[in-house]
Design goal:
Keywords: Pyridoxal phosphate. Its cofactor is pyridoxal 5'-phosphate. Pyridoxal 5'-phosphate (PLP)-binding protein, which is involved in PLP homeostasis. It comes from Aureimonas flava. By secondary structure, this protein is an alpha/beta fold. It has helices spanning about 5-20, 40-50, 60-75, 90-95, 105-120, 140-155, 175-185, 200-205, 215-220, and strands at about 30-35, 55, 80, 100-105, 125-130, 160-165, 190-195, 210-215. An 8-stranded parallel β-sheet has the order 7-6-5-4-3-2-1-8. Helix 3 (about 60-75) links the parallel strand 2 (about 55) and strand 3 (about 80). Helix 4 (about 90-95) packs across helix 5 (about 105-120) and helix 6 packs parallel to helix 7. About 40% of the residues are buried. It binds pyridoxal-5'-phosphate (PLP). Pyridoxal-5'-phosphate binds near residues 82, 83, 196, 215 and 216.
Length: about 220
Amino acid sequence: MSETAVDRLRDIRARIRAAEAEAGRASGSVELVAVSKTFDADEIRPVLEAGQRVFGENRVQEAAAKWPGLRAEFAGVALHLIGPLQSNKAAEAVALFDVIETVDRDKIAREIAKEMARQGRRPRLLVQVDIGEEAQKAGIPPREAAGFVRRCRDEHGLAVEGLMCIPPVAEHPGPYFALLQTIAAQTGVERLSMGMSGDFERAVPFGATSVRVGSAIFGARPRP
Ligand SMILES: *Cc1c(COP(=O)(O)O)cnc(C)c1O
C-alpha cells in the first residue's frame, strides 16, 4: 500500500479506469464511493481536498456527527447510506443522505416514502439484495427482489434506481455479481452497487455502476 489515503485514492481511481478499459466500458462509467465509516473528519478531509466527493457511511448516527461539518467546508458532497436502516432512523437518513442503498423491506420503504413526502427531499434509492442468501446479512432474497422493486414503485411510490449487494466473504464474487446483474436486467433497473476493496475490479465487467471502497483508501479499520 502507498503512503497516504490520497496516494491510495489516486491508485484506486487508476485501477477503476483500467478495469473499465479492460471490460470495454466507457471511462468514468464506474463511480467510486469512498467508504469513510469509522474514520473521523480529520482523516476524511485530505480525501475531500483531493477532489473526492462521493462517500459511503454505514451508520446514520455516525454520519450525522461527522458530515454536516464537512459539508460546510466542501461543496458538492454526495453521501450514500450503505448500512442497514432501522425505521426509527428513517427521518434522519432521508434528511442526511443523497443515496440510500439499503432499502430491503416494505416497512422501511413505507417509512422512507413517508419521510420523503414530509421533508420534500428525494434521496436516490437502491434495493439491497442478500445475494448469497446468508441469514446474517441484510437484504431481500434474490427471488423476491423483482417483486419488491415493483412494490416500492406501485405501493410505496418510490422510484428504485438500482440494486446493491455484498457477496459472501471468502467465495469467488463473480457468480454473485453476475446474478445481481441478471436480477437488475429482469427488474429493469440500471444502477448496480457492487465491489469493495478486495474485489472492486472484478465487479466492473459485470456492470457495476458504483464500487464501495473503504479500507483500500483509508486503511484498516479499528472496528467493523
Ligand atoms: C464497509 C463496507 C464497505 C467497504 O469495505 P472495504 O472492504 O473496506 O472496502 C463496502 N460496502 C459496505 C456495505 C460496507 O459496510
